[in-house]
Amino acid sequence: MPGKSLRLTPLAVMVLALLREGDMHPYEMARTLKQRRNDRMVPITNGTLYHTVARLQDAELVREVGVDREGNRPERTTYTLTDAGRDAVVAWVRAELPQNTRPAQFRVALAEAHNLDRAEAVELLSQRRDALIADLDGHHAGLAGAAERDTPPQFLIEIDRQAELIETDLRWTRRLLTHLGDPNYLWGVDARFPSSHHPESKDATS
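Given the sequence above, the corresponding structure tokens read:
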């Protein structure tokens, strides 16, 4: 069990998920996350990343496995994922993936959903689909009620926009569930990248 309880931030989850792919030092973590454009979801600076890694180590979700030095560069500590860290990624994604009220967390959960097996991902996304349907019905009912009361449209602009966003999200979620129902749709930690397209390969990084 971890030595200290830690409430994971989205950046912490991305770091843990990255370490599932192999041991890394923080500089490599930052470079890889930015190469994959994960900074679209969460701001990534060297300061916040090093602080996050330190907190993860304190919570015994990662641990040091070596220190390297190249030339005059500062020492770089390499970290590995502990069993508790591996479990923490899955637990966080499992909790956030079915949610439809925390968009920032959902984006990260979706990006890391491949850490779950296909059946569980389908189940959790189906729960989110049902929540979106209920939310959309509520917005439509509210708009219909407002129309019956002759509410001026200017007071309904935000509600109308939100209904459109939910409808788009729902349509996209249904499409993803259709993809996941196809056994030819690659899924899972062992199918992230075909060998010729792995981010560590020469072609992918050149």
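The two ends are 41 Å apart (CA to CA). Try to locate this feature in the token string yourself.
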